[in-house]
Specification:
The structure is a homodimer of 605-residue chains. With 605 residues, the first copy, chain A, is of the alpha+beta class. Helix content of chain A is 35%, strand content 19%.
Chain lengths: 605, 605
């Protein structure tokens, strides 16, 4: 089974629009911000003490992710502008790589004496992102000088960490090198990179390593147990899903059944107990981390964009590792695509969220104002760049490789999996699948294929229609070659969280197909917290296209809870409602029209 | 109109039990803790640098409040044990008072050079509490040496703050001296103390004073505006209600209509927008303060015991200042008596809460445990003493002077107001009112009186029965002399908060007569957050006496919300309930049987 964005062409519709926004706006905007902040010029290694724009120890990774995204775009489009920028960066990388293979801006120009001395300063993380970019660039262009430089770097890392043990730490504080080394192995075919990947994975969490516990917690960087014993997701959520992705890579490669079971348990734990209805993960700002099961506060949600992207990485690997459950993993990818990941970027493509809260309540945020205090809340508007700007280039590389998540080809059976629905073509070695659809605005998927296909029936779908014989297997409708359609029969519906999320009792979210909706005060007379949805009437809600958002919005017959108590603070229990139309917009569209109260979970009458 | 606990004898029942607990257990327990911690011996002024138990700058006030409480008890009971302790403290006060009249332990033995230099170090606050104790002791015993010492102190304070302006601040950081000076005036008849009270009140919040803003906020110590312009309650809640009490004193004494309107506005603001259903006020730990209107988080409630007591002080003064609305103020006193104030003390009388949360959710408190972090929450069990131990002696003085809140005598009309219901006698100058009742366990109030009486009909009461002719006026049923009964017709009922308290939407509290109830996990199979009450069936709940608590408990037909979703984190909205009996106990009884989840607000089906 394989996924390869290079075999997929998105033709029109929702995802074409987003792919184009990325290749026309986002990739340039992120580069420009990185240029302005000094990240690009930092690759010249000219910074000296006293200069402004001192390179940060994670800048290499920001730019590397951007390069990776640029490479994916270049694989599809003639983009001399991007080519020039990437080639120029590669020039600098070649020029400034040390004799021994080492490459790191911060630890060369700012604090060279500290090379390999600080576990949490992202040295191997930066290396990993550069390696991923090199592989992507090689895949996209066939040019190998970047890849060769990174092979040399990886060999040097092996010397330091495996042969000489000369670093002051054993495993990285921020995982990434592991999955990057696996990718180096897959790209080059060289076993030594797989071995180094395995080395870092296997040594993680071993008591004998006595690794520094970052932020005072062994859990923070998944250091609390050896990898096979980690059955619950803990710590920094991006680090966690990057680690779990590499674990899935290794399990797939080695056929390690125990590791596979661990990966399955972790995926279950995240998606079954620690994930927001939007797909967001990591429910606290402290350590940007997972907390306990069912602890999913809405207003304080961290739900980092990178963590949603990382969960997509993990899910895609799980599709390969555990193909019987492929549809389940693909469901989570769809959830992220339309919600938790996509809310990370503004509708105009050049502003970004790091955190993605599920609720904004501006008045409550100012509760301590008279005391000269403020509490910590997620920001309400997307800025153009962050000091720690990992999310924007992560979106660039994700949105330029969407094909990776849409189709899979099973070499054994010759079947094509249609996992995500976009108006698109899969084509490779004579196999051609053509999908025509207005999904997610329309539930009809038209398919023309010369190979047998498996069409994912999303978990949210309560039954589908089709005009062709089929069987259903493990969440997929299986069809032979031909021309036919599948109707996923979308209706707006309310989604409740488990009763164990006790703070959500009495509330529900609105889902329409794969899209989770929210209410913004700007559409609802300034009010969201007193709105009620009516479970009986949600299915009949009116769906219309909003020019302002360029998306479909939903108007539900609902209610505004009004004061029964004639102004009293306490009175005998009663409830009074006024009928109102509640306008719901796709969650990923929130905060595109100024600061406004917002809620994914509304009260239910 | 006047209130005087000395004219009231509580005979039996709920309040007799509490009064006795206080005079037999609490007053001794608090003294013993104060002795153990060095607070009593500190009055010997023998502490020297290097000694342990260094006096704190608020210790004088802790002991003074205890002395005040002991005085109230001595007025009713022959208590040579208390007399000896108080007299011995007065000996030390006389002995250690400075020539100039100054008396303060900390600023004499620890940091004498700092006298009158730090606005927030409670110097005038301590002075105020000593003056209150002196007045109480004089009223209770007729002995005046303590009062004379405090007169001398007050005169010295006038010299410093009015004549010489030699202090480095103009008004106290923690109010208390104002109401104490008013009391000195009422006790001694000397106008100069009223003038000094007025001085401190009138200078508060004047821009020209340029007072230090404590904690960076002018609001914290009610320093943001001159007193007549303060229409919303802000800042440290105990300071606030002590200030407002003194403002009401001054308005009453001077007939200042503008100040009266300010006091009414403040009372309305607190009780109409910033008070928990238990009577708790001050909804944040930060600054122990009021926040914005309708911001009443349950689990994080601060709701300091002293603030509830202070609101009782303010309410009693408002009864005098605004007698047409007397019943309304008395309603709030009743709310505090059975709930917010009373939860401050354990059922066995020797342990105390400073904060009184409306919800405990132990699991959620540990959400950051894996990250080595903890969030700040109210404690879950009452300790015997605090470093800042203001609440325990405040309870001692309040619970020994309950008669102050029960009856008022209107000299003009000759009527006796029966404001709080206890099995008790009011007797003064030939007027005798005898109340027989098992309230709050029984709703029948039997009255035998030789004077006309006004019986408060509580706001929670939806209609009353009586066997005697009467009129109803401003919340009171008015009767002539005779023997009759009034039945307040109690039924358990659900109470909702205003829809503006959006975090409570979908929830309600249970009230039975004046008592607010809560659910503890220990009584409910370990669960409170998934419990639902049924508004249709609450009135038929079963009321029974619990030997364990010594209180009436209520068993409601209710529901446990169970998982409809077969273990899924998200699923189409539906609700599944299992019928359960929900045991509710009086809120003030929570946390008497070990640590347990607790909630005042339960979900409503």
């Amino acid at each position: 089974m394989n996924f390869d964005y290079r075999n997929v062409t998105i033709r029109r519709g929702f995802w074409k629009q987003i792919e184009e926004l990325n290749s026309k706006v986002t990739v340039n905007a992120v580069y420009d911000r990185f240029f302005e902040t000094g990240r690009i010029d930092a690759f010249k290694f000219e910074w000296k003490k006293g200069d402004d724009k001192q390179p940060h120890f994670f800048w290499d990774s920001d730019v590397a992710k951007w390069m990776e995204g640029a490479a994916y775009i270049m694989a599809k489009e003639h983009r001399p502008d991007l080519e020039k920028k990437v080639e120029s960066l590669i020039d600098e990388i070649e020029k400034n790589q040390c004799e021994d293979g080492y490459f790191n801006i911060y630890f060369t120009v700012v604090q060279p004496e500290a090379r390999w001395s600080c576990r949490d300063w992202h040295e191997l993380y930066c290396a990993g992102h550069l390696m991923e970019a090199a592989c992507a660039y090689y895949d996209a262009t066939g040019r190998d000088r970047f890849l060769r430089a990174m092979e040399k770097y990886a060999e040097y890392i092996k010397r330091v960490f495996v042969d000489e043990h000369s670093a002051s730490f054993v495993t990285p504080g921020h995982e990434e090198i592991e999955l990057a080394l696996y990718r180096m192995y897959k790209t080059t075919g060289k076993e030594k990179f797989l071995e180094l990947c395995r080395h870092f994975l296997e040594r993680r969490g071993l008591a004998e390593n006595n690794e520094m516990n970052i932020g005072g917690s062994a859990y923070y960087a998944q250091n609390h147990l050896p990898i096979r014993e980690q059955k619950e997701a803990f710590g920094h959520s991006v680090r966690a899903v990057y680690l779990y992705s590499a674990m899935a890579d290794l399990a797939l490669e080695t056929g390690d059944g125990e590791l596979k079971e661990t990966c399955k348990a972790l995926f279950e734990n995240i998606t079954g107990k620690k994930m927001y209805v939007t797909g967001g993960i990591g429910s606290t700002y402290y350590g940007e981390a997972f907390t306990i099961c069912y602890d999913l506060p809405n207003a304080g949600a961290y739900a980092e964009t990178c963590a949603s992207i990382g969960l997509m990485f993990f899910a895609r690997r799980m599709m390969l590792l555990d193909p019987e459950n492929s549809a389940k993993y693909s469901d989570i990818i769809e959830l992220e695509m339309y919600n938790g990941m996509l809310s990370g970027i503004s509708l105009d493509g050049d502003k970004f969220f790091y955190e993605n809260p599920l609720e904004i309540f501006l008045e409550e945020r100012g509760r301590l104002k008279s005391l000269g205090k403020s509490e910590r809340w997620p920001i309400t508007q997307r800025p153009k760049v962050f000091g720690c700007s990992c999310c924007p280039p992560n979106l660039v590389r994700l949105l330029s490789s969407l094909g990776n998540y849409m189709y899979a080809y099973d070499e054994k059976s010759g079947e094509v999996y249609i996992d995500q629905f976009a108006d698109s073509i899969y084509e490779k070695d004579g196999v051609r699948v053509e999908v025509s659809t207005d999904y997610p605005y329309d539930s009809v998927i038209k398919i023309k294929t010369n190979a047998p296909v498996k069409v994912r029936i999303p978990e949210w779908c309560h039954g589908f229609g089709t005009n062709k014989d089929h069987t259903v297997e493990n969440g997929y409708a299986c069809f032979g070659a031909g021309e036919f359609e599948v109707d996923l029969l979308m209706k707006p519906e309310l989604v409740a969280s488990s009763v164990n999320v006790v703070r959500n009792l009495g509330k529900a979210a609105l889902r329409y197909g794969p899209v989770i909706y929210c209410a913004e005060a700007i559409d609802n007379g300034g009010e969201v917290h007193k709105l009620y949805l009516d479970p009986e009437r949600v299915a009949d809600a009116k769906i219309s296209y909003s020019e302002e958002l360029g998306r479909e919005v939903i108007d539900c017959d609902g209610f505004l809870r009004v004061d029964e108590q004639t102004g009293k603070l306490y009175a005998p229990y009663s409830r009074k409602f006024e009928p109102v139309t509640v306008r719901m917009i796709p969650y990923h569209c929130f905060a595109n029209r100024g600061e406004s109260d917002m809620a994914v979970y509304l009260n239910v009458k």
